[in-house]
Protein backbone atom coordinates (compact mmCIF):
# COMPACT_ATOMS: atom_id res chain seq x y z
CA UNK A 1 0.00 0.00 0.00
CA UNK A 2 1.45 3.35 -1.05
CA UNK A 3 0.59 6.56 0.74
CA UNK A 4 -1.32 9.23 -1.11
CA UNK A 5 0.08 12.76 -0.93
CA UNK A 6 -2.84 13.60 1.35
CA UNK A 7 -1.88 10.77 3.72
CA UNK A 8 1.76 11.86 3.66
CA UNK A 9 0.61 15.29 4.75
CA UNK A 10 -1.92 14.06 7.31
CA UNK A 11 0.58 11.73 8.99
CA UNK A 12 3.71 13.81 8.32
CA UNK A 13 4.38 14.48 12.01
CA UNK A 14 4.28 10.73 12.64
CA UNK A 15 6.29 9.68 9.60
CA UNK A 16 9.04 12.17 10.41
CA UNK A 17 9.60 10.39 13.73
CA UNK A 18 12.40 7.84 13.65
CA UNK A 19 10.28 5.43 15.76
CA UNK A 20 7.33 5.62 13.36
CA UNK A 21 8.34 6.29 9.77
CA UNK A 22 6.36 4.92 6.83
CA UNK A 23 6.54 1.39 8.24
CA UNK A 24 5.11 2.43 11.59
CA UNK A 25 2.33 4.46 10.03
CA UNK A 26 1.40 1.46 7.90
CA UNK A 27 1.27 -0.67 11.05
CA UNK A 28 -1.14 1.87 12.56
CA UNK A 29 -3.30 1.88 9.43
CA UNK A 30 -3.44 -1.92 9.50
CA UNK A 31 -4.15 -2.16 13.23
CA UNK A 32 -7.45 -3.02 14.91
CA UNK A 33 -8.26 -1.62 18.35
CA UNK A 34 -11.43 -2.26 20.35
CA UNK A 35 -12.57 0.41 22.82
CA UNK A 36 -15.01 -0.82 25.45
CA UNK A 37 -16.96 2.18 26.76
CA UNK A 38 -17.57 5.37 24.78
CA UNK A 39 -17.43 7.61 27.84
CA UNK A 40 -14.93 9.79 29.66
CA UNK A 41 -12.00 7.49 28.92
CA UNK A 42 -13.21 6.03 25.64
CA UNK A 43 -13.84 9.46 24.10
CA UNK A 44 -10.24 10.75 24.08
CA UNK A 45 -8.88 7.28 23.31
CA UNK A 46 -11.16 6.99 20.28
CA UNK A 47 -10.33 10.48 19.07
CA UNK A 48 -6.55 10.11 19.36
CA UNK A 49 -6.61 6.66 17.77
CA UNK A 50 -8.80 7.92 14.92
CA UNK A 51 -6.54 10.91 14.38
CA UNK A 52 -3.49 8.62 14.43
CA UNK A 53 -4.95 6.56 11.60
CA UNK A 54 -5.71 3.30 13.40
CA UNK A 55 -7.32 1.50 10.47
CA UNK A 56 -10.10 -0.27 12.34
CA UNK A 57 -11.58 0.98 15.59
CA UNK A 58 -14.31 -1.03 17.30
CA UNK A 59 -16.36 0.74 19.94
CA UNK A 60 -18.78 -0.95 22.35
CA UNK A 61 -21.30 0.80 24.58
CA UNK A 62 -24.97 0.20 25.35
CA UNK A 63 -25.82 3.73 26.46
CA UNK A 64 -27.23 6.83 24.85
CA UNK A 65 -25.64 10.26 25.18
CA UNK A 66 -26.93 12.13 28.22
CA UNK A 67 -26.54 15.85 28.88
CA UNK A 68 -24.56 15.02 32.05
CA UNK A 69 -21.97 13.16 29.92
CA UNK A 70 -20.88 16.20 27.97
CA UNK A 71 -18.74 17.74 30.73
CA UNK A 72 -16.12 15.06 29.99
CA UNK A 73 -17.11 12.86 27.04
CA UNK A 74 -15.65 15.12 24.39
CA UNK A 75 -16.43 12.87 21.44
CA UNK A 76 -20.14 13.72 21.87
CA UNK A 77 -21.78 17.13 21.33
CA UNK A 78 -24.97 18.76 22.55
CA UNK A 79 -26.78 17.77 19.33
CA UNK A 80 -25.99 14.10 20.11
CA UNK A 81 -28.02 13.90 23.34
CA UNK A 82 -30.30 10.87 23.09
CA UNK A 83 -28.26 9.24 20.33
CA UNK A 84 -26.47 5.90 20.96
CA UNK A 85 -22.97 6.77 22.16
CA UNK A 86 -21.39 4.39 19.67
CA UNK A 87 -23.17 6.16 16.81
CA UNK A 88 -22.14 9.60 18.00
CA UNK A 89 -18.56 8.39 18.52
CA UNK A 90 -18.49 6.85 15.04
CA UNK A 91 -19.66 10.10 13.43
CA UNK A 92 -16.97 12.13 15.20
CA UNK A 93 -14.19 9.67 14.33
CA UNK A 94 -15.24 9.44 10.69
CA UNK A 95 -15.39 13.22 10.44
CA UNK A 96 -11.87 13.42 11.89
CA UNK A 97 -10.26 10.89 9.59
CA UNK A 98 -11.77 9.12 6.56
CA UNK A 99 -8.97 6.51 6.69
CA UNK A 100 -10.57 4.95 9.78
CA UNK A 101 -13.18 2.21 9.64
CA UNK A 102 -15.36 2.35 12.76
CA UNK A 103 -17.28 -0.74 13.88
CA UNK A 104 -19.99 -0.11 16.46
CA UNK A 105 -21.36 -2.53 19.06
CA UNK A 106 -24.45 -1.03 20.69
CA UNK A 107 -24.51 -3.51 23.54
CA UNK A 108 -23.38 -4.18 27.08
CA UNK A 109 -20.28 -6.33 27.21
CA UNK A 110 -21.07 -9.61 28.98
CA UNK A 111 -19.59 -13.06 29.49
CA UNK A 112 -21.79 -14.14 26.59
CA UNK A 113 -20.44 -11.77 23.96
CA UNK A 114 -16.99 -10.57 25.03
CA UNK A 115 -14.89 -13.39 23.55
CA UNK A 116 -16.56 -12.84 20.21
CA UNK A 117 -16.10 -9.06 20.45
CA UNK A 118 -12.39 -9.11 21.20
CA UNK A 119 -11.31 -11.95 18.94
CA UNK A 120 -10.54 -9.89 15.82
CA UNK A 121 -8.73 -7.04 17.59
CA UNK A 122 -5.01 -6.49 18.23
CA UNK A 123 -5.40 -4.39 21.37
CA UNK A 124 -8.29 -3.72 23.76
CA UNK A 125 -9.01 -0.54 25.71
CA UNK A 126 -10.93 -0.80 28.99
CA UNK A 127 -12.79 2.49 29.15
CA UNK A 128 -15.53 1.21 31.46
CA UNK A 129 -16.73 2.67 34.73
CA UNK A 130 -17.49 -0.36 36.84
CA UNK A 131 -15.70 -3.27 38.48
CA UNK A 132 -17.74 -6.13 36.97
CA UNK A 133 -16.80 -4.93 33.46
CA UNK A 134 -13.16 -4.40 34.41
CA UNK A 135 -12.77 -7.94 35.78
CA UNK A 136 -14.68 -9.35 32.81
CA UNK A 137 -12.40 -7.56 30.32
CA UNK A 138 -9.30 -8.69 32.20
CA UNK A 139 -10.35 -12.32 32.40
CA UNK A 140 -11.45 -12.43 28.76
CA UNK A 141 -8.20 -10.83 27.55
CA UNK A 142 -6.13 -13.25 29.65
CA UNK A 143 -8.09 -16.22 28.27
CA UNK A 144 -7.92 -14.97 24.66
CA UNK A 145 -4.28 -13.88 25.06
CA UNK A 146 -5.04 -10.28 24.09
CA UNK A 147 -3.15 -7.24 25.33
CA UNK A 148 -5.23 -4.48 26.92
CA UNK A 149 -5.02 -1.19 28.75
CA UNK A 150 -6.87 -0.91 32.03
CA UNK A 151 -7.80 2.48 33.40
CA UNK A 152 -10.09 3.98 36.00
CA UNK A 153 -10.92 7.55 36.97
CA UNK A 154 -12.82 9.11 39.84
CA UNK A 155 -12.89 12.59 41.39
CA UNK A 156 -9.39 14.02 40.88
CA UNK A 157 -7.70 10.65 40.57
CA UNK A 158 -6.85 8.26 37.80
CA UNK A 159 -4.88 5.08 37.28
CA UNK A 160 -3.84 2.80 34.49
CA UNK A 161 -1.84 -0.34 33.74
CA UNK A 162 -1.12 -2.37 30.64
CA UNK A 163 -1.45 -6.12 30.32
CA UNK A 164 0.45 -8.06 27.68
CA UNK A 165 0.19 -11.87 27.81
CA UNK A 166 3.28 -13.38 29.39
CA UNK A 167 4.79 -10.00 30.21
CA UNK A 168 3.70 -9.30 33.74
CA UNK A 169 0.71 -9.25 36.03
CA UNK A 170 -2.92 -8.94 34.97
CA UNK A 171 -5.53 -6.74 36.64
CA UNK A 172 -6.72 -9.68 38.77
CA UNK A 173 -3.15 -10.37 39.98
CA UNK A 174 -3.30 -6.94 41.58
CA UNK A 175 -6.92 -6.48 42.60
CA UNK A 176 -8.07 -10.13 43.11
CA UNK A 177 -11.84 -9.55 43.21
CA UNK A 178 -14.35 -6.73 42.75
CA UNK A 179 -15.15 -4.81 45.93
CA UNK A 180 -18.53 -5.60 47.51
CA UNK A 181 -21.46 -4.06 45.71
CA UNK A 182 -22.03 -0.43 46.78
CA UNK A 183 -18.84 -0.43 48.89
CA UNK A 184 -17.17 1.87 46.41
CA UNK A 185 -18.81 4.94 44.92
CA UNK A 186 -19.24 5.19 41.17
CA UNK A 187 -18.49 8.34 39.24
CA UNK A 188 -22.15 9.14 39.17
CA UNK A 189 -22.14 9.33 42.95
CA UNK A 190 -18.63 10.63 43.47
CA UNK A 191 -18.06 12.91 40.50
CA UNK A 192 -15.05 13.22 38.28
CA UNK A 193 -13.20 16.17 36.84
CA UNK A 194 -13.72 16.15 33.08
CA UNK A 195 -10.10 16.60 32.09
CA UNK A 196 -9.19 13.43 34.04
CA UNK A 197 -10.59 11.33 31.19
CA UNK A 198 -8.38 13.32 28.84
CA UNK A 199 -5.22 12.73 30.89
CA UNK A 200 -5.72 9.02 31.50
CA UNK A 201 -7.46 8.22 28.21
CA UNK A 202 -4.65 9.89 26.26
CA UNK A 203 -2.17 7.68 28.11
CA UNK A 204 -4.22 4.63 27.13
CA UNK A 205 -4.15 5.74 23.49
CA UNK A 206 -0.39 6.18 23.78
CA UNK A 207 0.01 2.63 25.13
CA UNK A 208 -2.05 1.21 22.24
CA UNK A 209 0.03 3.14 19.70
CA UNK A 210 3.34 2.05 21.28
CA UNK A 211 2.16 -1.57 21.35
CA UNK A 212 1.23 -1.44 17.66
CA UNK A 213 4.51 0.23 16.72
CA UNK A 214 6.52 -2.14 18.94
CA UNK A 215 8.48 0.82 20.30
CA UNK A 216 9.43 1.87 23.80
CA UNK A 217 8.42 0.38 27.12
CA UNK A 218 4.81 -0.36 27.96
CA UNK A 219 3.22 0.07 31.37
CA UNK A 220 3.37 -3.67 32.02
CA UNK A 221 4.28 -4.67 35.56
CA UNK A 222 3.44 -1.19 36.82
CA UNK A 223 0.41 0.77 37.93
CA UNK A 224 0.55 4.46 37.15
CA UNK A 225 -1.51 6.64 39.46
CA UNK A 226 -2.30 10.32 39.01
CA UNK A 227 -3.49 12.68 41.71
CA UNK A 228 -4.51 15.92 40.03
CA UNK A 229 -4.91 17.94 43.25
CA UNK A 230 -1.40 17.10 44.39
CA UNK A 231 -0.20 17.13 40.78
CA UNK A 232 1.52 13.84 41.45
CA UNK A 233 2.18 10.87 39.20
CA UNK A 234 3.38 7.63 40.82
CA UNK A 235 4.62 4.61 38.90
CA UNK A 236 4.14 1.74 41.30
CA UNK A 237 6.02 -1.48 40.58
CA UNK A 238 3.70 -4.50 40.81
CA UNK A 239 4.74 -7.92 42.12
CA UNK A 240 6.13 -9.86 39.19
CA UNK A 241 5.04 -13.24 40.56
CA UNK A 242 1.91 -14.22 38.66
CA UNK A 243 2.07 -17.95 39.46
CA UNK A 244 -0.78 -17.90 41.97
CA UNK A 245 -3.20 -15.66 40.08
CA UNK A 246 -6.71 -17.11 39.82
CA UNK A 247 -6.89 -16.38 36.11
CA UNK A 248 -3.39 -15.89 34.62
CA UNK A 249 -1.48 -18.10 37.10
CA UNK A 250 -0.06 -21.58 36.62
CA UNK A 251 -3.19 -23.34 37.88
CA UNK A 252 -6.10 -20.99 37.20
CA UNK A 253 -9.24 -21.50 39.27
CA UNK A 254 -11.20 -19.11 37.09
CA UNK A 255 -11.67 -20.86 33.76
CA UNK A 256 -15.04 -19.41 32.83
CA UNK A 257 -16.05 -15.78 32.56
CA UNK A 258 -18.02 -14.27 35.43
CA UNK A 259 -20.74 -11.62 35.28
CA UNK A 260 -20.44 -9.95 38.67
CA UNK A 261 -23.48 -8.10 39.91
CA UNK A 262 -23.38 -4.36 39.35
CA UNK A 263 -24.14 -1.72 41.94
CA UNK A 264 -27.66 -0.32 41.60
CA UNK A 265 -26.58 3.10 40.46
CA UNK A 266 -24.05 1.93 37.89
CA UNK A 267 -24.63 2.14 34.23
CA UNK A 268 -23.28 5.55 33.36
CA UNK A 269 -20.02 5.23 31.56
CA UNK A 270 -17.11 7.37 32.58
CA UNK B 1 25.73 10.26 -14.54
CA UNK B 2 28.08 7.33 -15.04
CA UNK B 3 29.23 7.14 -11.42
CA UNK B 4 25.96 5.78 -10.03
CA UNK B 5 22.91 3.76 -11.05
CA UNK B 6 19.54 5.13 -9.94
CA UNK B 7 17.37 2.44 -8.32
CA UNK B 8 14.28 4.57 -7.83
CA UNK B 9 13.02 8.10 -8.33
CA UNK B 10 10.56 10.26 -6.43
CA UNK B 11 9.03 13.59 -7.40
CA UNK B 12 8.43 15.90 -4.44
CA UNK B 13 7.60 18.99 -6.51
CA UNK B 14 3.87 18.35 -5.97
CA UNK B 15 3.97 18.80 -2.18
CA UNK B 16 5.10 21.51 0.24
CA UNK B 17 7.17 21.54 3.44
CA UNK B 18 7.26 19.44 5.57
CA UNK B 19 5.61 16.88 3.27
CA UNK B 20 8.54 17.29 0.84
CA UNK B 21 10.90 15.64 3.30
CA UNK B 22 8.25 13.13 4.40
CA UNK B 23 7.68 11.97 0.83
CA UNK B 24 11.43 11.62 0.26
CA UNK B 25 11.85 9.77 3.58
CA UNK B 26 9.06 7.33 2.70
CA UNK B 27 10.67 6.64 -0.69
CA UNK B 28 14.01 5.98 1.04
CA UNK B 29 12.36 3.58 3.49
CA UNK B 30 11.23 1.46 0.55
CA UNK B 31 14.83 0.94 -0.59
CA UNK B 32 17.51 -1.45 0.63
CA UNK B 33 20.78 -0.26 2.11
CA UNK B 34 23.18 0.96 -0.59
CA UNK B 35 20.46 1.59 -3.17
CA UNK B 36 20.26 4.98 -4.82
CA UNK B 37 17.29 7.34 -4.97
CA UNK B 38 16.90 10.35 -7.22
CA UNK B 39 14.65 13.00 -5.67
CA UNK B 40 13.21 15.70 -7.90
CA UNK B 41 12.57 18.91 -5.97
CA UNK B 42 11.83 22.57 -6.52
CA UNK B 43 14.34 25.38 -6.13
CA UNK B 44 14.09 27.48 -2.97
CA UNK B 45 12.89 26.03 0.34
CA UNK B 46 12.99 22.32 -0.68
CA UNK B 47 16.52 22.46 -2.03
CA UNK B 48 17.65 24.33 1.07
CA UNK B 49 16.04 22.00 3.61
CA UNK B 50 15.48 18.52 2.17
CA UNK B 51 19.14 17.62 1.55
CA UNK B 52 20.03 18.72 5.09
CA UNK B 53 17.19 16.67 6.64
CA UNK B 54 18.17 13.60 4.61
CA UNK B 55 21.77 13.99 5.70
CA UNK B 56 20.60 14.21 9.34
CA UNK B 57 18.86 10.84 8.88
CA UNK B 58 22.28 9.40 8.09
CA UNK B 59 21.96 8.95 4.32
CA UNK B 60 24.71 9.87 1.90
CA UNK B 61 24.21 12.75 -0.55
CA UNK B 62 25.98 11.86 -3.79
CA UNK B 63 25.09 14.75 -6.04
CA UNK B 64 22.73 17.68 -6.59
CA UNK B 65 21.94 18.18 -10.26
CA UNK B 66 20.53 21.52 -11.44
CA UNK B 67 17.96 20.73 -14.15
CA UNK B 68 17.95 24.45 -15.08
CA UNK B 69 14.16 24.53 -15.12
CA UNK B 70 13.65 25.52 -11.48
CA UNK B 71 14.04 21.93 -10.28
CA UNK B 72 16.91 19.85 -8.94
CA UNK B 73 17.60 16.12 -8.78
CA UNK B 74 19.14 15.11 -5.48
CA UNK B 75 20.97 11.78 -5.69
CA UNK B 76 21.01 9.94 -2.36
CA UNK B 77 22.50 6.64 -1.26
CA UNK B 78 20.51 4.90 1.44
CA UNK B 79 22.41 4.18 4.64
CA UNK B 80 20.90 1.80 7.23
CA UNK B 81 17.92 -0.50 6.82
CA UNK B 82 15.18 1.45 8.61
Detailed description of the structure:
The complex is a heterodimer of chains A (270) and B (82). Chain A is of the alpha/beta class and 270 residues long. Chain A has one domain: Rossmann fold (3-Layer(aba) Sandwich), CATH 3.40.50. In chain A, strands 3-2-1-4-5-6-7-8 form an eight-stranded mixed β-sheet, sandwiched between helices. In chain A, strand 5 and strand 6 form a beta hairpin. Chain B has 82 residues and is α+β, with helices and mostly antiparallel strands. Chain B contains two helices and four strands. Chain B is globular. Classes of the chains: A alpha/beta (270), B alpha+beta (82). Chains A and B meet through helix 1 and helix 3 of A and helix 1 of B.
Offer a few descriptive terms.
heterodimer, A: 270 residues, alpha/beta, Rossmann fold, eight-stranded mixed beta sheet, 8 strands, disordered C terminus, B: 82 residues, alpha+beta, Translation Initiation Factor IF3, four-stranded mixed beta sheet, 28% helix
Calculate the mean pLDDT score of chain A and round it.
Answer: 94
> How would you write the strand order of the largest sheet of chain B?
1-2-4-3
- The N- and C-terminal alpha carbons of chain A lie at a distance of 38 Å
Largest sheet of chain A: 8 strands, mixed
The CATH topology of chain B is Translation Initiation Factor IF3
Global mean pLDDT of chain B: 93
Per CATH, the superfamily of chain A is NAD(P)-binding Rossmann-like Domain
Radius of gyration of chain B: 11 Å
What form of chain A results from the Cα inertia axes?
Answer: globular
CATH architecture of chain A: 3-Layer(aba) Sandwich
Order of helices and strands of chain B: EHEHEE
- Quaternary assembly: heterodimer
CATH third-tier fold name of chain A: Rossmann fold
Shape of chain B: globular
Tell me the distance between the termini of chain B: 27 Å
Approximately what portion of the residues of chain B adopt beta-strand conformation?
25-35%
**SSE string of chain A, helices as H and strands as E:** HHHEHEHEHEHEEHHHEE
Rg over CA atoms of chain A: 18 Å
Indicate the proportion of strand residues of chain A: 15-25%
Largest interface (C-beta under 8 Å): A-B, 11 and 12 residues
Q: How many H/I helical runs of chain B?
A: 2
Amino acid sequence: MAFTNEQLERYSRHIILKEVGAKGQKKLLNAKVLIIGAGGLGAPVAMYLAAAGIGTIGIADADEVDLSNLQRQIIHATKDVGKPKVQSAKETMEAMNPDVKVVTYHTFVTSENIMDLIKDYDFIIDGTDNFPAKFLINDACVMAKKPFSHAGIIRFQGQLMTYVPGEGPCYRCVFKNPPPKDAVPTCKQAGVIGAMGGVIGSLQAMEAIKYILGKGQLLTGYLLTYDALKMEFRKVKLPSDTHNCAVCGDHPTITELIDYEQAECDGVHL
Amino acid sequence: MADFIIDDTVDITDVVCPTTFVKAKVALEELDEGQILSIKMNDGEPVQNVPRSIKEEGHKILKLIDNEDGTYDLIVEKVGDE
